[in-house]
Design brief:
- The complex is a heterodimer of chains A (520) and B (392).
- By secondary structure, chain A is of the alpha+beta class.
- Chain A folds into three domains: 229 residues, 3-Layer(bba) Sandwich (FAD/NAD(P)-binding domain); 114 residues, no CATH class; 130 residues, Guanine Nucleotide Dissociation Inhibitor, domain 2 (2-Layer Sandwich), CATH 3.30.519.
- Chain A contains 16 helices and 20 strands.
- Among the domains of chain B are: 138 residues, Gyrase A, domain 2 (2-Layer Sandwich), CATH 3.30.1360.120; 84 residues, Beta Barrel (Elongation Factor Tu (Ef-tu), domain 3), CATH 2.40.30.
- Chain B contains eight helices and 19 strands.
- In chain B, strands 10-11-12-9-3-13 form a six-stranded mixed β-sheet.
- In chain B, helix 2 crosses helix 7.
- The radius of gyration of chain B is 21 Å and the shape is globular.
- Chain B starts with 13 loop residues before the first helix and ends in a 19-residue tail after the last strand.
- The chains are: A alpha+beta (520), B alpha+beta (392).
- At the A-B interface, helix 11 of A face helix 3, helix 4 and helix 8 of B.
- The structure holds flavin-adenine dinucleotide.
- Flavin-adenine dinucleotide (FAD) binds next to helix 1, strand 2, strand 14 and helix 15 of chain A.
- Flavin-adenine dinucleotide binds next to helix 1, strand 2, strand 14 and helix 15 of chain A.
Chain lengths: 520, 392
């Protein structure tokens, strides 16, 4: 009978980070990962012989820098292929918008917009800093008599006071409206507005006019308070992040088993007792930490009948829809985006000419259809990292919004059309690219779910909306990594603070388990 | 009874009930028009205790639970071990929310291998649905599809036997037996809310009026009478039955935190089977068992004959609880009150004081009535349990 202090279900970046911190306190930790590689959505995949892409997440702009230092990730092989990339808003007439963290440029950008952008960023960064603080520890409980939580609440309250009355009022106003309206009152240029608002809808089941888009925007902006002045790219693709976390974990004494899917989390009385793998093997542990998304943790691994009924109800009501797909191209030659030099082509390229364009793209998915003209976030990653493709050849990886989980008739009927639409669209900005495609790969939300395991293919595991963040993430009663099942913890994107390659969910969960000590 | 419901519905017995309801004293039960009393509360009560009383309990919420997981579903929802419930048996049950707080009480009838009926005081549609997540069960609200009468009192068995229900005396408490009635099934269970010998009859609504007529015809010689909710209230207090919504706030209706009660705090710990590895609220109840309950449910014998309705309960000068139900109980000849007492007060035999307020001709009077904690209900006759049932 094998027995561990802690079993972690899932070796995504959060699971591995959690494992690292737990092992450092001397606990025996086993990570069970269904896939053949560590890192979860931080993955690299070969899409064509010799052509590798970041197969899910492509930009690193949120990873908490303290993690890189504390876990010595650079020692374990983590390297940046490019840092502080600009975001370039593509325009079919070649008059692109160049956005960096502190300035905006472009032929059609007015001086007013340039100044407004600086003001806008100063203000938004103040708000993002507030979130930054709150993200560093567990979320307070809804009703709480506990000092740690009071302090977190106080930090938030105090932080808000320090904002000054005007800023505070504005935050309360902004957070409840939508990014579309905020853009309308801040800028003139359509392309600029679309570019900024896109950060408010990335990964979400939302268009610029949807609620929660300002929060989503601020969430992403937290990365800038960490010192990411733009997106960055990891050498070897995002899988290298997973590899470095796994290497660090192994050195800390963590045992990692790849290709081992957990079929069930076992429970005796009110406490977890271990897990059963797909092949029937049973492994024991009094503490189970799940990096799988909360819905599948409770619905698939524990079973709704084995948890409290009120909790089962909350689990089924987690909103977890996705509209995000991934497109990968293996290219015979370097692409040629109109009006960009090769250095510029290695930046973050976005096709979203105006906000209505994005909103229309979102309309489709509301009705279970894919956008005929989606918004696309492109990384020609091989321009910054020669290891990804054979010499002279290239790979392009793109986040494509929006695609439904499954359109009427199933993806088999629609896959090629959606891929072709998206490629045709890119062709408009990069003429000739179609002819150089050696092969392509489209990952729909359904594919992403089946490869990476997150329900619905949801970027954040649990949608990032105001009713599902902080002390309500993933749902009230399960907001501090622990839940109403003794010994069971959550550590993934579906917990506070949320998704993206941030790593704090994993770290905070470990802190909580360590703090509870023998009571864990 | 919920004041928010409108009295729009009529039970399948309504034509008969209406004819019998001499004093037109109607109440609202789950939206149904039901008699609080038919002619005289005390005489109705005495019918239950000395002859036979008939109570229309059709408005009772009834849910049919069927499917391969039916037993597992009930076992997870209820605090009792439902796997022990045999076919044609009934169990009194309570169920809790995740925090181990009482939501309601009721009865579960096992009708066949994977067929159960749950009778609940409050509507439970949504909770049953949430509880069914992950189970292969079908739940149907059959409140309106089943007409029901409680036939209670010492001559109830004789009455029903006279109506043709042969062998009824062999039924043990909580047994069910099915009879033929005009080509339909008349299901009889030896159950009730009065603490006396008694039965409940379950039938399809189209046969309700015939059943009423034949029952009253057969019962004439045994002095059968209908009784309303006021008389029932006295009977149930006398025999120690708590009522959801009266003696505890149903957790799902709670607005102020802390006002709900656990089964342990309601003296219903005997219904909680900690041997079961999983049931809703178990984790919280285990914790309560370890760290102690906040309240204790007690039955008080109050001096004097003023019912201690809504009274404060004092220990010396200190207020330690309050009364939820009270009645002068004629058969036991005692003044009974149910109370919630703060721990650690309220142990068996403890002397307390009921601060009773009552009004006569717009004049309010306060009495401090000594009272003591009883170790059980004041009415618990042997005939309630005896099998075969004794003929009176
Ligand atoms: C298309 C797409 C693009 C994205 N792009 C970016 C981006 O550019 N930048 C960014 O920061 N974020 C991006 N994200 C979001 C980011 O990838 C995720 O939020 C983040 O990776 C979640 O990390 P995690 O460790 O919490 O969970 P995951 O990475 O989902 O890891 C969970 C792990 O658990 C494993 N698992 C699940 N169930 C079981 C089981 N039963 N047994 C064993 N193992 C199991 C899975 O295989 C997986 O490895 C993107 C997401 C998507 C879907």
């Amino acid at each position: 009978m094998t027995n561990y202090d802690v079993i972690i279900v899932g070796g995504g970046h959060n699971g591995l980070i959690c494992a690292n911190f737990l092992a450092k306190t001397g606990k025996s930790v086993l990570v069970l990962e269904a896939r053949e590689a560590p890192g979860g959505c931080a993955a690299t995949n070969e899409i064509h012989p010799g052509f590798n892409v970041s197969a899910c997440a492509q930009w690193l702009d949120l990873l908490n820098p303290s993690l890189i230092q504390e876990l010595k990730l650079e020692k374990y092989g983590l390297q940046f292929a490019a840092k502080n990339l600009k975001t370039i808003g593509l325009n079919s007439d070649g008059n692109h918008v160049f956005l960096s963290h502190d300035s905006v440029d472009g032929k059609n950008i007015s001086d007013e917009d340039k100044t407004s952008y600086i003001d806008f960023k100063v203000k938004m960064l103040k708000y993002a800093k507030l979130l930054k603080k709150v993200f560093e520890s567990r979320a307070p409980k809804l009703v709480e008599h506990n000092w740690t939580d009071r302090i977190t609440l106080a930090k938030l309250a105090l932080g808000m006071k320090f904002l000054g009355k005007e800023d505070m009022n504005d935050l309360m106003r902004l957070i409840l409206i939508n990014i579309y309206d905020v853009m309308e009152e801040s800028f003139e240029n359509q392309n600029l507005k679309a570019l900024i608002s896109f950060d408010g809808v990335m990964g979400g089941y939302m268009g610029p006019r949807s609620p929660n888009t300002v929060f989503n925007f601020l969430y992403k902006l937290v990365g800038e308070t960490y010192g990411y002045y733009g997106s960055s790219q990891i050498k070897g693709g995002m899988g290298a992040l997973g590899e470095s976390l796994a290497a660090a974990a192994k050195d800390a004494g963590v045992e990692i088993r790849l290709g081992d899917r957990v079929a069930r989390i076992n429970k005796t009385g009110s406490r977890v007792s271990g897990v059963t793998l797909d092949d029937g093997e049973v492994i024991y542990s009094a503490i189970i930490v799940s990096n799988a998304d909360p819905f599948s943790t409770f619905n698939n691994l524990l079973g709704l009948r084995n948890i409290e009924a009120g909790m089962a109800r909350r689990v089924t009501q987690i909103r977890r829809k996705s509209g995000t797909a991934k497109l990968h191209l293996a290219l015979d030659t370097a692409p040629n985006f109109l009006g960009l030099d090769s250095e510029q082509m290695g930046q973050r390229l976005v096709i979203a000419p105006d906000m209505n364009y994005i909103e229309r793209a979102f309309n489709s998915v509301k009705y279970g259809e894919y956008s005929p003209t989606p918004a696309i976030d492109i990384s020609v990653s091989s321009l910054n990292d020669e290891t990804l493709a054979p010499s002279g050849k290239h790979v392009l990886s793109a986040i494509v919004q929006y695609a439904p989980y499954e359109p009427d008739g199933g993806w088999d009927v629609h896959r090629d059309i959606f891929a072709k639409n998206s490629i045709d669209l890119i062709e408009q900005y990069a003429p000739g690219i179609k002819d150089s495609i050696l092969s392509h790969q489209l990952l729909t939300p359904k594919d992403l779910e089946s490869i990476y395991g997150m329900t619905g293919g949801q970027w954040h595991h649990v949608e990032m909306t105001l009713d599902q963040v902080l002390m309500m993430r993933p749902f009230p009663g399960a907001s501090q990594y622990g839940v109403d099942v003794d010994g069971l913890y959550l550590c993934g994107a579906g917990t506070h603070p949320g998704g993206g390659l941030m790593g704090l969910a994993g770290k905070n969960a470990a802190t909580e388990i360590i703090k509870r000590g023998s009571e864990a | 009874m919920n004041e928010n419901d409108v009295m729009m519905l009529k039970t399948p017995f309504h034509s008969r009930v209406e004819a019998a309801c001499e004093i037109n004293l109607w109440g609202n039960w789950m939206g149904y028009t039901t008699p609080d009393a038919y002619f005289d509360v005390e005489l109705e009560y005495f019918a239950v205790r000395s002859t036979t009383g008939v109570f229309d309990l059709s408005p009772m919420n009834k849910y049919r639970i069927s499917g391969p997981d039916a037993a597992h579903f009930l076992d997870r929802m209820m605090t009792r071990n439902m796997h022990k419930l045999a076919i044609d048996r009934v169990a009194y049950v309570v169920w809790c929310n995740d925090a181990g707080q009482l939501m309601d009480d009721g009865t579960v009838f096992r009708l066949a291998e994977n067929e159960y009926r749950l009778c609940s005081y409050a509507k439970a549609n949504d909770w049953l649905y949430w509880c069914s997540l992950g189970f292969d069960v079908t739940i149907t609200d059959e409140t309106a599809e089943v007409a029901a009468l409680a036939v209670q009192g010492p001559t109830s068995c004789s009455t029903l036997t006279a109506m043709g229900l042969e062998g009824l005396e062999e039924l043990k408490p909580f047994d069910i037996r099915n009879y033929r009635f005009d080509g339909e099934i008349l299901s009889v269970s030896r159950t009730g809310f009065t603490g006396d010998l008694g039965y409940e009859l379950w039938i399809t609504p189209s046969k309700a009026e015939d059943l009423w007529d034949r029952l009253f015809e057969a019962g004439k010689q045994f002095l059968i009478k209908p009784f309303g909710s006021h008389a029932l209230d006295i009977a149930r207090i006398e025999t120690g039955f708590v009522q959801a919504g009266v003696d505890f706030v149903m957790a799902q209706d709670l607005i102020r935190p802390g006002r709900s009660r656990s089964p342990l705090e309601m003296g219903l710990g005997w219904l909680v089977d900690f041997e079961k590895t999983h049931f809703n609220g178990r984790r919280a109840l285990l914790k309560e068992r370890e760290t102690g309950s906040r309240y204790r449910f007690v039955i008080l014998d109050v001096d004097g004959n003023k019912p201690a309705d809504h009274s404060f309960i004092l220990k010396g000068d200190k207020q330690v609880g309050n009364v939820t139900s009270a009645a002068w109980c004629p058969t036991a000849k005692s003044n009974v009150a149910f109370a919630q007492i703060e721990m650690p007060y309220g142990e068996f035999g403890e002397e307390l004081t009921a601060e009773i307020y009552y009004e006569r001709e717009l004049h309010w009077t306060r009495v401090l009535a000594p009272c003591r904690v009883l170790d059980g209900p004041v009415f618990n006759p042997g005939r309630r349990r005896q099998t075969p049932a004794v003929a009176f």
